[in-house]
Automatic annotation (TrEMBL):
Annotated Gene Ontology cellular component terms: cell envelope
Protein name per UniProt: Membrane protein
Cofactor(s) demanded: Zn(2+)
Taxonomic lineage: Bacteria, Pseudomonadati, Pseudomonadota, Gammaproteobacteria, Pseudomonadales
Predominant location category: other
Organism from which the protein derives: Marinobacter psychrophilus
Gene Ontology BP term (one): proteolysis
InterPro entries hit by this protein: Cell_wall_metabolism_enzyme (IPR050570), Csd3_N2 (IPR045834), Dup_hybrid_motif (IPR011055), LysM (IPR018392), LysM_Opacity-associatedA (IPR007340), M23ase_b-sheet_dom (IPR016047)
Domain spans labelled LysM: 88-136
Chain segments annotated as transmembrane: 12-30
Biased amino acid composition, Low complexity: 48-76
Length: 465
């Protein structure tokens, strides 16, 4: 009895204490909105970065003075209670598609549709490269406010929502410069094997061969002991490489005869006397000329969406099935199919130039294929979003779209007379550094990210094809 009585009293005290502590705990929690607003991370693999990337905030932020209470968003008729704007960053993995990523984050397909629509003039979301980052910015109602794609260390594209719920793309670029390095080698076996052994990448070897192939037969003309010197450029922003590379100069010594190519500031390659070593560009991507249905514009009223946006190319009114030719020598860098751009082809020309052909009915080339100027690459069509059969043609110089019909692009076979003096000054500087054993940064004063690479022993059986 005594034992039972004692136990009951102790129990009552403990119970009272427990009730008291629970009540206190509840009160503390009610006082702390952060605790109530904490919600599980909806994103499977993303890292939450609530305060970073403030500088990338879209101009139409929910705190904008015109609409302090009603952020214009098509996704938020049934919005959850307001919370702090949030930023999440997502590292792209192999095999990811944009629609998978949007789905995993619970963003409606209609928003994906709007973002893709804004990307039609860039096609930047078409090839998601593993290791790159996309950042999602949400407003206080958890509606997507902006999507930021980091293209490389120097470039981002921001897709930001507008008052009408549409997204607009804006490209941002930090300052870049080129660092140069010299690679030397001697032929032993094939040129390909010798050049790779000297430290050039496969793409660089192919580019060197492409630059000199009209002068030299790489299979038959080279002898063991012939030498080559290549200046390669690497694009940098601050101290980080952006991943862009280019060949700046090539000198191949066959016996006593030198074969040279120099990249000039117009993006074209010339020999030491200023004659073009590559075929120049055609202005028109078709053999016949067609009416221009919409010209290049940095601010065009879109006939379908009714919004103002850049028109990064020229539209030609071509009947479906019209043959399209590549306007220059190059390599097919991408073949794709986009909801709005339709079937399309990108061709890379020596790293500096790119051409793009949209709304195709049939593609006649494959990614990675080397293309000659004037070669038939596709048939025109009406695929994607289009007001009627036409070809949309773009020309990019160092990543910037220009008007292909009027821009100062290399269509001539020579360095223009007015620029010859500065071209020759550049050539003598580059030749001096290539012939010298002194490190390049002493002579060019541009700095060199890598020590000069010199290889004497080259072996192998591969060949350029
Ligand atoms: Zn167009």
């Amino acid at each position: 009895m005594l034992f039972r009585h004692f136990f009951t009293r102790t129990h009552k005290i403990i119970l009272s204490l427990a009730i008291f502590f629970v009540a206190v705990a509840l009160l503390i929690q009610l006082d702390n909105p952060d605790t109530l607003n904490a919600k599980p991370d909806r994103n499977l693999a993303a890292v939450s970065q609530p305060t970073s990337l403030q500088s990338l905030q879209s101009p139409q932020s929910p705190q904008s003075p015109q609409s302090p209470q009603s952020p214009q968003s098509p996704q938020s008729p049934q919005s959850p209670p307001a919370s702090e704007p949030e930023t999440q960053s997502y590292l792209i993995k192999k095999g990811d598609t944009l629609s998978d990523i949007f789905e995993s984050k619970g963003i409606p397909a209609s928003v994906l549709h709007q973002v893709l629509e804004a990307d039609v003039e860039y096609l930047s979301l078409e090839t998601l490269q593993p290791g790159k980052r996309v950042t999602f910015k949400y407003d206080r109602h958890r509606a997507l406010e902006a999507l930021v794609l980091r293209i490389d260390a120097a470039r981002t594209i921001t897709f930001a929502i507008q008052d009408d719920g549409a997204f607009v793309a804006r490209k941002e670029e930090s300052e870049t410069h080129w660092y140069s390095a010299i690679t030397r080698g001697a032929i032993k076996g094939s040129f390909y094997a010798s050049a790779v052994k000297s430290g050039l990448s496969d793409a660089e070897v192919a580019e060197v061969a492409n630059l000199l192939k009209s002068k030299i037969d790489f299979r038959r003309d080279l002898r063991s002991g012939d030498t080559f010197t290549v200046i390669t450029g690497r694009e940098m922003t601050h101290d980080s490489p952006t991943g862009r590379q280019r060949i700046e100069a090539v000198s191949l010594l066959r016996g006593l005869k030198a074969y040279n190519a120099f990249l000039f500031d117009d993006g074209n390659y010339y020999n030491e006397t200023g004659e073009s070593v590559l075929l120049a560009f055609l202005r028109w991507p078709t053999e016949k000329r067609f009416r221009i249905s919409s010209s290049f514009s940095s601010d065009r009223l879109n006939p379908i969406t009714g919004r103002r946006s850049p028109h990064n190319g020229v539209d030609f009114a071509t009947p479906v099935g019209t043959p399209i030719v590549s306007t220059g020598d190059g390599v097919v860098s991408r073949v794709g199919n986009h909801r709005f751009a339709g079937r399309y082809i990108d061709i890379n020309h020596s790293g500096t130039f790119e051409t793009r052909y949209l709304h195709l009915s049939k593609v006649l080339v494959k990614q990675g294929q080397r293309i000659k100027r004037g070669q038939k690459i596709a048939l025109t069509g009406n695929s994607g979003r289009s007001t009627g059969p036409h070809l949309h043609f773009e020309f990019h110089v160092n990543g910037q779209p220009v008007d292909p019909l009027t821009a100062d692009i290399p269509t001539a076979a020579k360095v223009p007379d007015v620029k010859l003096a500065s071209f020759k000054a550049q050539v003598s500087k580059q030749l001096a550094s290539m012939q010298s054993q002194i490190s390049l940064d002493v002579i060019l004063a541009t700095g060199s990210p890598q020590p000069t690479r010199t290889t004497k022993e080259n072996e192998g059986l591969h060949d350029i094809n």
